[in-house]
Design a protein that fits this description.
The chain has three helices and five strands. The protein has 109 residues and is an alpha+beta fold. A three-stranded antiparallel beta sheet has the order 4-3-5. The chain has a two-stranded antiparallel sheet with strand order 1-2. A hairpin with a 5-residue loop joins strand 1 and strand 2. Helix 1 packs across helix 2. It is elongated. Bound molecules: L-tyrosinamide (TYC).
Length: 109
């Protein structure tokens, strides 16, 4: 099972401690940050957030914004949980400060 299966080989180091030749590791889970469409948040504001928070170029940001505008929802990026959570909070905080109803959430990738 998993990427480390099939190797239980053990070694004894110079201090007599037995260690796994390849200790089990786990890749951190990834999360999609999703942006939701609404009828009120200005397009330029969304593009600005995508550039500022998600480090997109103006062209990438415009593409994502239009995708969300047309389909109702879209992916801003995929990150580890803490990074995704921070970006969602930054978006919601900026939207709130500017009185825009913009919503943003995350889901496991
Ligand atoms: N639909 C908005 C408008 O027409 C633009 C918009 C795009 C809003 C993406 C939110 O996540 C969003 N002004």
């Amino acid at each position: 099972m998993g990427s480390n299966s099939g190797n239980d080989e053990e070694r004894e180091n110079e201090r007599g401690v037995v260690t796994k030749a390849r200790p089990k590791t786990k890749k951190p889970s990834q999360y999609r940050v999703l942006l939701l469409n609404d009828d009120y948040t200005p397009m330029e504001f969304v593009v600005g957030l995508l550039m500022g928070v998600f480090k997109k170029t103006q062209e990438e940001a415009t593409k994502i914004m239009l995708d969300v505008h047309q389909n109702g929802i879209g992916v801003c990026g995929i990150y580890t949980f803490e990074v995704a959570e921070t970006k969602v909070a930054q978006v919601l905080d900026a939207a709130k400060r500017h009185d825009h109803p913009l919503k943003c959430t995350l889901e496991k990738a």
